[in-house]
Write a structure and sequence with these properties.
Radius of gyration: 25 Å
Distance between the termini: 26 Å
Structural class: alpha+beta
CATH architecture of the largest domain: 3-Layer(aba) Sandwich
Strand content: 25-35%
Helix content: 10-25%
Largest sheet: 6 strands, mixed
CATH superfamily of the largest domain: P-loop containing nucleotide triphosphate hydrolases
Number of strands: 20
Order of helices and strands: EEEHEEEHHHEHEHEEHHEEEEEEEEEE
CATH topology of the largest domain: Rossmann fold
Shape: globular
Number of domains: 2
Mean pLDDT: 91
């Protein structure tokens, strides 16, 4: 998650680590079936007050259906939803302490910015003075002062997004649900808005639940996230936990880029295991966190930025006695400005992806197509996928 640089002298427990705290949102055995399709399949999830939590997954993973059940727009086939310890499962949307910001923003085209923000408050029959005060606060918070009289067609994508956010928070909900909130923005504006969204959430102290298919967005803004696939939660954790210690192949491949290696445990020594793989000529070592038997067939995830690439004739083995090695030929290169993406073909035909940061300006690539290279990585760089 995007964080400030302030250092705390003591490490406090996060809300989800504290066994004495009660979850603010509790989902129990929640399922939703459309005809013969199980869109959400027996989901259990706890989210704590003040969290910015993301539901991350591809199309059809069940994340949006889960969000709509939280909002009350879909009724569960089975299971329970609790918000602030109150059972919300069968309540209609207007009786839930929840606001939802839709992907399309759903602004009323015939209303000004000010009128759009005030609309929900007017439905609650508040006094004109109270409505004006709340709308003014939201306009100030989202920096919309110069846009109050404009209609939606006169706004940019980023401005529409801020208006939709203002309309969602003006009612001061206990829970704010955001469906792909940054999807309509261009890359630079999306990155800028990620910081604004985190700052807004921290300033308000609200609990945010975001649905997104964008892994970079989820990693940047979330305290924690849940990766979903086929209606089920595959893994819940902090961005660091999800990326560095994926639970299974789906999570490893969906969140970031990775190399999946099929191997067999050949030898055990302390916290290290020696592995043999049909993809490589030589055995390699990996750290193992859990006991594992000799001969076990495993899958290993190695992130491409954790592999070093050098020309084979320039490699000095005496400088790398503790590293794993493999050989290959450069098959593909993608120059992406800040990094170069290499695909290396091993003698057994396995494609290994390597990411190399471009730290200094270059007129030509130091390693190019067809070069014979050697790959090295540390034993701690690979993760055994446990599921």
């Amino acid at each position: 998650m995007i964080q400030s640089l302030e250092n705390s002298p003591t490490q406090e427990l996060e809300s989800w680590q504290d066994p004495n705290l009660t979850p603010y949102v509790r989902i129990e055995n929640l399922s939703k079936k459309f005809d013969d399709v199980m869109a959400v399949d027996n989901v259990n999830l706890s989210i704590y007050k003040g969290e910015l939590f993301s539901l991350l997954g591809g199309s059809g993973s069940g994340k949006t259906t889960l969000l709509r059940m939280l909002a009350g727009f879909e009724m569960p086939s089975s299971g329970k939803i609790f918000i602030d310890e109150t059972d919300m499962t069968k309540l209609p949307p207007f009786k839930r302490p929840v606001s939802m910001m839709f992907q399309s923003y759903a602004l009323f085209p015939h209303m000004s910015v000010e009128q759009n923000i005030a609309f929900g408050l007017k439905q609650e029959s508040l006094s004109k003075a109270k409505i004006a005060s709340k709308v003014s606060d939201a306009i100030e918070l989202l920096h919309l002062n110069k846009l109050t009289k404009r209609r939606p067609h006169q706004l940019s994508g980023g401005q529409k997004q801020r208006v939709a956010l203002a309309r969602s928070i003006v009612k001061q909900p206990k829970l704010l649900l955001l469906d792909e909130p940054l999807a309509a923005l261009d890359k630079k504006l999306r990155e800028k808005t990620q910081f604004e969204l985190v700052n807004l959430q921290e300033q308000l102290g609200l609990t945010f639940i975001i649905v997104t298919h964008d892994q970079d967005e989820a990693m940047a803004v979330s305290n924690r996230l849940a990766v979903m696939d086929n209606g089920r939660i595959q893994q819940i954790g902090t961005p660091h936990e999800i990326y560095e210690y994926p639970a299974n192949q789906h999570v490893a491949e969906f969140v970031g880029s990775t190399n999946i290696i099929e191997a067999r445990i050949d030898e055990l020594e302390g916290s290290y295991a020696r592995c043999i793989s049909a993809d490589f000529d030589t055995p390699f070592s990996i750290k193992q966190a859990l006991p594992i038997a000799l001969g076990t067939e495993i899958l290993i995830s190695i992130r491409p930025e954790k592999i070093k690439i050098e020309k084979r004739d320039e490699f000095d083995e005496s400088k790398h006695p503790d590293k794993n090695m493999s050989y290959g030929i450069v098959d593909e290169i993608a120059y992406l400005g800040d990094i170069s993406n290499y695909l290396i073909k091993t003698p057994h035909g396995k494609m290994i992806r390597v990411l190399v940061p471009n730290k200094t300006p270059k007129t030509e690539m130091p390693i190019t197509w067809g070069d014979h290279v050697r790959l090295t990585w540390q034993a701690g760089s690979g993760v055994i996928l446990t599921q």
